[in-house]
Design a protein that fits this description.
- The chain has about 210 residues and is of the alpha+beta class.
- The protein is about 15% helix and about 45% strand.
- A hairpin with a 4-residue loop joins β4 (about 60-65) and β5 (about 70-75).
- It starts with 5 loop residues before the first helix and ends with a strand.
């Protein structure tokens, strides 16, 4: 039931998007900052309990920006976790994420903006990003592939090339998982989760 990991994927996506700007059908221009369109974006992850019961989860409040210099940052409000279960949601916040101590998760990355200069509307580019993650008080780095598609002169779509796999134990969430398992009366909760993202960024002031 490890939802926080989704943030990582989102960050990766946000970072890449900033690089895609420019004319409607011509090469992308690099000027301008980008912001996440939350209405058109989505971040989901799948949790597994009792070995073979899968459940889809998400976060309702994520934000992100990418500057014209290629500095990207994404923030996930962990209190916005949505497991489609009114009893489980507050347990996730209290015991797994410990939102009183760690209300948000954050990821940062830096892009080489010149790599996206030639993108035209409809073009797609795959990029390997190095993400700096800050989750549950633990900072980590990881490499992550994302695909960036230019949707228009001031709009890009970022998706993960393959699901991002994260392990809650790597972020000190073992005790929280054990507590959730106890409260739910389950024999097992898988600590490893796949994460998928579909993020739309728009250039500001255009």
């Amino acid at each position: 039931m490890f939802r926080t990991m989704i943030l990582t994927a989102v960050l990766a996506a946000g970072v890449t998007m900033s690089a895609c700007s420019g004319g409607d059908s011509g090469p992308a221009e690099l000027a301008g900052d980008w912001t996440l369109n939350t209405d058109e974006s989505g971040l989901t992850y799948i949790t597994i309990k009792l070995d073979d019961i899968a459940e889809i989860n998400t976060f309702r409040d994520i934000s992100g920006t990418v500057t014209s210099e290629g500095n990207a940052s994404i923030i996930i409000n962990l209190n916005s976790v949505d497991t489609a279960n009114e009893i489980r949601d507050p347990r996730m916040k209290q015991y797994l994420f410990e939102t009183e101590k760690y209300p948000v998760a954050k990821a940062d990355a830096t892009l080489d903006m010149s790599a996206f200069e030639s993108l035209k509307t409809g073009d797609r580019h795959t990029e390997l990003l190095n993400l700096q993650l800050d989750l549950h008080g633990v900072k980590a780095q990881m490499d992550y592939y994302v695909s960036v598609t230019r949707l228009g002169p001031n709009k890009v779509l970022v998706e993960n090339k393959a699901p991002l796999i994260l392990d809650a134990r790597d972020f000190g969430m073992d005790a929280g998982l054990a507590k959730l398992q106890e409260l739910a009366g389950l024999d097992s909760i898988t600590p490893v989760v796949p994460i998928t993202v579909s993020l739309v960024f728009e250039r500001l002031g255009k």
